[in-house]
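Bit of a strange request maybe. I'm writing a small parser for structure token strings and I need a real example to test against, not something I typed by hand. Could someone generate the tokens for this chain?
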Amino acid sequence: MKYCSVRGLEKDISFKDVLFRGYAKDGGLYMPQTIPFVSEDKLKEMKKFSYSEVVKMILRLFIDESEISTDDLNSLVKSAHSQFEIPEIIKFAKLNEDLLIAELFHGETLTFKDLALSVVGRLFEYFLKQNNKHTIILVGTSGDTGSSAISSVRGLQGIDIIVLYPKNNCTKIQELQMITFTDSNVHCFAVDGSSDELDAPIKKCFADFELVVKHNISSLNSINWSRIAVQIAHYFYLYLQLCSQDESLEVIVPSGAAGNLTAGLLANLMGLPITLVASTNSNKCVSEFLRRGEIKTGNKAHPTLAPAMDIQMPYNLERLVFLVSNGDFKLLESFGSAFDNNRNIKLPDIILNKLKEVIIDAESFSDDVITNTIRKCWQENSYRVCPHTATAVAYHYKHKKTRGSIRVCLATASADKFPDALISSQVPPNINSKIECLFKLDKKFVRMQVGENWFSILKNKIEEIGNQYSVLAS
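Reply from user aminoacidic:
Good idea to test on real output. This should exercise your parser:
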């Protein structure tokens, strides 16, 4: 399996090289050059697979044996999944009104990001040990990705991680889950800006090819292809657990940067009979793009009860277009240039219609709807949902499912992480000891304030870490 930039400049790249890169040289994202197909016979064979077995099977399709042996891949996944608090990794809740929820949040930081990042962190460690190298992982987060990324690599030799998060646009618990990691290889920056604004200095760093090569800079955002690859597995697992041979699966996906949607679209193209619905908060970029094929610039993300979705420029939209455009690099180059330069975008109808064949609908929901949905779910089922999950449940309450399909809502984070949203919805929060202890721990972070040169601060930190490692290595 080889990889390319969606904009066409780079081709025939190995999995290992893609793992250790963020953006491609042309500013695009990496994707596999061919999409493997899983036959109906193979799906039947997988019917009794555990979640871990599904992950191993999916990764084997995207990583050549010459890069990681099957034995090493199996050990790596086993180690990653030992962190989860339930042995089955993913749990299902069947509620009334035909409401089915897949709980993807039983990892170390109580978010679905743990499903992928627990594995990706070990992929990094595996290759770094082989080559006795050091890497600097650069992450921008709107909330949950930061803590999950840190958890996956904290204390690992050969890895430093730098995380930028929006100081006033994530919850207190999300913040504490990042800044209470005081390991020497963890570096958190609290940015006085939005998620989109903090992405700008990060992308500028990745565009500095000399800096990237010198310090071996990579990412654990869904910029990184390996994270998308692991997320494909949970779509296969959901289908295998929930559907008989003649049934299809409709998955309602709470969507921020659209990485999870990308994984779902890939699962469909690999032969899985699923369709997707994207649910978002009142930051409507994803839903407007998937409904009308348009991105209108000039809109800043505004804070909501579902902060992981407070995004107006989701970079994985470029991957979605790549997957349905049959490798039209001219289109992708134009799309990417408009995206990079903050220009309005309008997809050709033929591309939009191909997207709609799989992502059959998209809808955004206000904070009022999110609050009412959290309350309704509790009143009718005594079941707590987080604000992000509530957007999926709100769609389920509003729209009947497709005939002949099984429908499942993805629960992307534990409601325990959002007590304020629960209280405002008149739902009693659950006391979670893992969260309660955060308030007593030491904190470590640096501020990036309005008016400062965030790129210079970030670049200087990268140089400082890289130079320290060079001294130690020598």
